[in-house]
Write a structure and sequence with these properties.
The protein is mostly helical. It has one domain. The protein contains four helices and no strands. The N and C termini lie far apart (26 Å).
């Protein structure tokens, strides 16, 4: 199954420390380049732990 998401649900799940739910529900998660860029661009808006969790999930940190 392919699941497409914008940045908000990904950041929201990371904020409540439930980002792992995506992997549990859908298996492999691929983050679109535009979503990845938006997360990196908004790094200062979110806690460093949230950004780190999202980027780790994307294999970037």
């Amino acid at each position: 199954m392919i699941v497409v998401s914008n940045t908000t649900p990904i950041i929201s799940l990371a904020c409540v420390q439930r980002l792992n739910l995506l992997e549990r529900l859908f298996g492999r998660i691929v983050i679109a380049e535009a979503v990845y860029r938006e997360i990196k661009a908004k790094r200062g808006w979110y806690s460093s732990a949230v950004c780190r969790a999202v980027l780790q999930q994307a294999g970037e940190e």
